[in-house]
Request: fold
Amino acid sequence: MEINRIDEFIYEIPLDANKKMNVPARFFADPKQLDIISKDESLKQLVNVATLPGIIGYSLAMPDIHQGYGFPIGGVAAFDTDDGIISPGGVGYDINCGIRLNITNWNRNEIAKFLKNIVEDIYNSIPLGTGKGSLLKLTKRQFEQLVVNGIDWAIENGYATEKDKYHIEDQGQLPVIDLSGVSEKAIERGNSEIGSLGSGNHFIEIGYVSTIYDEDVANKLGLFKNQIVIWIHTGSRGYGHQICSDFVRDYQSVSKKYGIELVDRGLACAPFNSKEGQMYYNAMNSAANFAFVNRQIIAQKIEEVFQTYSRKIKPLKFELLYDLAHNIAKVEKHTVQGKNKKLVVHRKGATRCLPRDKVSGPFSSIGQPVLVPGSMGTASYVLLGDAYALNLSFGSSCHGAGRILSRSQAKREINSKELKENLEKQGIIIKTPSMSSLSEEAPQAYKDVETVVTVVQNLRIANVISKLKPLAVIKG
Reply:
């Protein structure tokens, strides 16, 4: 496959890579990671996305690109809402898999002697693993209100505050006109998993701020050196998975109905403005709302645990810095070749990244926070969106480190017991109900997150504000 180097960190696959391509395919990468990226099918998938109708500009991928289902993970694709499509494969099975960062007024030294107990209490308080229960018991009607209203539902029912709302992407509520595209099975699965973490790469991490690169902005975000922070990485659980499964199945025939030729069945799609396209859009948004509430409820439970130690440490201040989605398709306005266009921007393993003049509320003076967790045991980063992201990537950034090894390969090559011992030697507490799956999320199964973040910074997609390091990781 021909790959042209456009800039130090920008590479392009030209239109002649596949005669069906409508736009070129571009990806951002450090040159030293090209060999890693080329080892899986992600670049072929990036080219395949470029064949879809109505795609605008480029089929894009962030520096954490790796192979996914249909679309590559780390992929970004924008489609004209008038003649373009929407694709479940461009969002993924875990709709609004996202990351949340809560901050406290405690520091690393203050929490040290209580940390093991806090981790144990959190581990025992939150359902972990596949299908392991719910923190709430709702009627079907209540559940439907939750997925339609998102964080507004959480506020009305005492699980969130008005302040929380303005620290969540899209204020924690994407538009849902109706739930006609949501199956009974999806509702049943979702209603049994509210406030649960799940398995795979989902985690709760207690960490601390190790380095601050911009003191002024860090102060505005409420960050300080050695501050205790909490990451929550999870999504829409079985609810979103079932919605994706249902539409991936149905869209095989829907694509044919509208004469859309697919080079890969994982690209199954429907015209965005069609009945079927709108049914998925509404169902997807309802799953995104579920995920916002899911992370909110988990955070509240973690805060309750922390509060039980406030008499031993000091009165707790527990706040939300930001909560964002990195598996979603959103209707947005972008300037393309000097014209304003309404686009449905698919981000699959990618983070919305907006500069300050495109953000309202508490971040209007600095820009949207971009949260980039590393792999288990490595550093994570807080960045802020830069205006260059609008020109380069439809306002999108990376979402993590990006896999090198598949889950099955990591399980074969990495010993979970040795991994746990090595992390604990570094002072990182590990808790999981599934030791056998721990190796799937080992640091060596992922790219170097610092290299990924450096690409984003050098392209001026987002600016690094602080580095955070782990003290304890709870995995499903």
The mean pLDDT is 96. Residues 4-475 form a domain with the tRNA-splicing ligase RtcB fold (CATH 3.90.1860.10).
